[in-house]
Design goal:
- The protein has 785 residues and is of the alpha+beta class.
- Helix content is 33%, strand content 27%.
- The protein contains 21 helices and 34 strands.
- The longest helix has 42 residues, at 478-519.
- The termini are close together.
Length: 785
């Protein structure tokens, strides 16, 4: 059986807390912005970064101030509101007419949503209509009631006169705050290559490429020349660097203003919205309909992101059938049919997840009241394609079909009556079509003799590649021919997938073996840099280990020369300080500021290449160099929240210790300074045991826990944590928290036996920190096969 990703967060949060090396307090999550380009454009934008940039001449601050004073009363905040009136997204906009026309991006206002405009004086006004909008240009012009308002419109310039390198000034409202101003240049005027953003999504017109900081929330803001005229509208920003973005030229905006397509607000709010006479939404999410397809987006309000969309169609008395065609954008999520729903927490769900199909009885608000009745490996299911789900509800029995193939027939009468409809979980985006409920839903099936004939034709094609003959044969039964082709393609893809999985398992075991060899020796002989290299190998099978071993050895050799010159006769304190100077002053090692959560900071090979890392990886570099240089009294210190290096030395008759904050360029602090640092980070002092030298195995475990935390809690990709957890459990088989996480991962991978083994281990050994009453209930839902 396969559990949706939300279980990794929902269950894990009550029992599992990973220590994380952080430079300060927990960072806020990025405020959500309705930017349809940012994610998909990331890699392509990287290639464009800095391309065509031209140095701007000096811009007089007084000139900027004068332009700001002239412009600020024309800038507005644009808010998209949810059905409950709460803010769902914020962007920028600007006034273009005294009678209340406001320009922004279409993605800022969304579709079918109320729109609120906040003027510079703080007054808020609901939009009365959408004057013009264009999906291709991502532009929208909204209207507010200007009666009694003294609006100051911005003039719109001719963008055909723009010259490459022209100085510009951008205005916007980053993160929904009051407006900001920033200067830059037009670095290029370019038409993006097809597929630059995504199939069918890349603009097919020239855009202004901007060399200027663009912050989240600037979408819809104006780009002005030094005369205060609008040259463009900010639309696309770089997700990695803030100094690159794109704007729609002002002449494209002019065409929209000259030929509007007005829609009253009452009508605008119905675009793409489900008809309430046909559907009732339960537990939130975002449900819309276009062209006969219902789409669910965003996290639901229910536990695990659960959300329902219930049909108002009268449900026949049992027995009855309900069916729908569904397609998931991410097979690790879940979406499908719901039936016997009470309109609240109780219902059945029949849905695909991870290429499998599940039948679950939901009897309450959280996972402990959910019973997974069946979890099936269904050959007929086609991941990433449209799949037909059908359920027949009898008095005592439930029967299910996938793509016309019967896949389950069980006795269960826990819930009856209620409504039928659609369900989704977590962040899954799913499309639904052809929803039907009736006493009996007919099935158009392919007779066995025809299936055998078409299958033989496909097999012959694979052997002989007789294209024309195969097309002729299969086109006679177009629908079934396509279905059989997709089935065979799925079989071959599944085989390729199994081989790739096997290769990954082999690689992981090789890394585990090498890591254990590196750790299985006396502590004084353990090479922490080599331990770090093995951890880095898990994500990079092609990592050139010998190259980095040689590079590190050369760095140690250079450090020896430096120490001989700087502290030849020095003791532990002087030698450690000389090494500190060598790394942080001579070689530029430093803590990562702008990309703290990048994987590269956790891998010692990248730290060696970039001279940038986390507290723990920088400490590994320092401590291992000290070991090879035979510097006494140097060790790692596993403070909660921030790893440091400790140095013991003798001062006269006294034993003393100082600490090196490797993340802060090797800053030296005493014990009280270390206590204060941790207090500032976590709000409490470190335990006495935290000052003890960290053992190599515990350092390796902490490095792996950082990576696990990064995948699960930061990136929200639990699957990505699987290899790190396996390495960690190889080092420490009794790590209870990681064993619990592996149980959930094994459920995700359909490894029921392995998941039960891990949960049974926890229940038998009962390490502290876990709610065993709830865990026992959860274990009870995993029925033995």
């Amino acid at each position: 059986m396969r559990f949706p990703h939300f279980l990794f967060f929902a269950l894990g949060v009550t029992v599992f807390v990973c220590p994380v090396n952080r430079p300060g307090a927990v960072a806020q999550e990025e405020a959500e912005e309705f930017d349809p380009f940012a994610d998909n454009a990331l890699e392509a934008l990287k290639q464009l970064e800095g391309e065509g940039e031209t140095e701007a001449s000096y811009l007089d601050p007084e000139q900027v101030k004068a332009l700001t004073d002239k412009t600020k009363n024309s800038l507005v905040l644009v808010r998209q509101l949810g059905r409950d009136g709460k803010r769902r997204g914020t962007g920028s906009g600007f006034v273009v007419s005294k009678d209340g026309l406001i320009v922004t991006n279409l993605h800022v206002i969304g579709e079918g949503r109320p729109i609120e405009i906040e003027l510079p004086d703080g007054s808020k006004h609901e939009a009365t209509g959408v004057r013009a909008w264009d999906r291709n240009y991502d532009l929208a012009v909204v209207k507010i009631d200007a009666k009694g308002l003294n609006l100051e419109p911005l003039p719109v310039a001719d963008s055909d006169t723009i010259k490459q390198g022209e100085i510009i000034v951008g205005f916007g409202a980053p993160q929904g705050l009051s407006f900001s101003v920033v200067a830059g240049v037009v670095s290029a005027i370019r038409k993006l290559d097809p597929g630059f953003i995504g199939d069918g999504e890349t603009p097919d017109f020239p855009m202004l490429q901007l060399a200027m900081p663009i912050e989240q929330g600037n979408s819809g803001g104006p780009v002005l020349n030094l005369n205060g005229e609008v040259l463009g509208v900010v639309t696309l920003r770089h997700r990695v660097t803030e100094n690159l973005g794109f704007a729609v030229p002002s002449n494209d905006l002019k065409r929209l203003l000259e030929k509007p397509n007005p829609v009253p607000m009452a009508r605008w709010r119905t675009i793409g919205v489900l008809d309430k006479r046909q559907w009732t939404q339960v537990m939130g999410a975002d449900w819309s309909q276009r062209g006969g397809v219902i789409t669910s987006r965003r996290l639901g309000d229910g536990f695990g992101g659960r959300a329902l969309c219930l049909s108002t169609t009268k449900v026949p008395e049992v027995p009855y059938e309900v069916s729908v065609r569904v397609k998931l954008d991410d097979e690790s999520g879940a979406a499908g049919l719901v039936f016997a729903a009470d309109g609240k927490d109780k219902h059945y769900g029949f849905y695909p997840s991870g290429g499998k199909v599940r039948l679950t009885r939901f009897e309450g608000p959280d996972v402990y009241s959910w019973s997974i009745l069946e979890q099936l490996d269904v050959a007929a299911y086609q991941p990433g394609e449209w799949n037909t789900l059908k359920i027949r509800v009898g008095e005592k029995k439930i029967t299910g079909w996938v793509n016309d193939e019967e896949v389950l027939d069980i006795e269960d009468d826990g819930l009856r009556g209620g409504k039928v409809g659609l369900c989704k979980f977590r962040h899954t985006e799913a499309d639904f079509r052809s929803f039907t409920v009736a006493k009996e839903i007919g099935v158009k099936s392919l007779p066995p003799i025809d299936r055998e004939r078409l299958t033989k034709s496909i097999t012959k094609f694979l052997d002989e590649e007789n294209v024309e003959e195969t097309i002729s044969e299969l086109s006679r039964e177009s629908e079934h021919g396509r279905t059989l082709l997709l089935e065979r393609a799925e079989e071959l893809e599944a085989l390729a997938g199994r081989l790739r999985d096997l290769e990954n398992d082999v690689h992981r075991q090789v890394v585990i073996n090498e890591l254990m060899m590196a750790l299985d020796r006396p502590e004084s002989e353990i090479d922490l840099f080599d331990v770090g290299l093995q951890i880095a190998r898990i994500d990079d099978p092609e990592l050139d280990v010998e190259h980095y071993r040689d590079s590190f050895a050369r760095l140690v050799k250079d450090a020896r020369i430096h120490l001989d010159q700087a502290a030849l006769e020095g003791g532990p304190k002087e030698l450690a300080n000389a090494l500190r100077d060598f790394l942080f002053e001579e070689n530029g090692f430093h803590g990562s500021r702008t990309e703290y959560y990048h994987h590269a900071n956790s891998y010692v090979n990248h730290v060696l290449d970039d001279r940038e890392g986390l507290p723990i990886t920088l400490s590994v570099i320092f401590v291992e160099m000290a070991r090879r240089l035979e510097l006494p009294g140097v060790y790692g210190v596993a403070f909660p929240g921030k790893f440091m290096v400790g140095v013991d030395y003798v001062d006269g008759e006294s034993d003393k210790t100082f600490y090196i904050d490797v993340f802060e360029n090797g800053r030296v602090i005493n014990r009280s300074g270390a206590v204060q640092e941790i207090w500032d980070l976590l709000g409490s002092p470190p335990e006495k045991s935290a000052f003890e030298p960290a053992k190599p195995r515990s350092i390796a475990i902490r490095m792996l826990r950082n990576l696990v935390d990064l995948e699960i809690n930061k990136n929200k990709t639990p699957d990505g944590a699987a290899d790190y957890i396996e390495l960690l459990l190889a080092i420490e088989p009794n790590a209870a928290q990681e064993r619990f996480q592996r149980a959930l991962l094994r459920l995700q991978e359909e490894n029921m036996e392995g998941a039960r083994d891990d949960l049974d281990w926890l229940l038998e050994h009962r390490p502290p920190g876990i709610d065993y009453r709830r865990l026992e209930v959860f274990r009870g839902t995993l029925v033995e096969e």
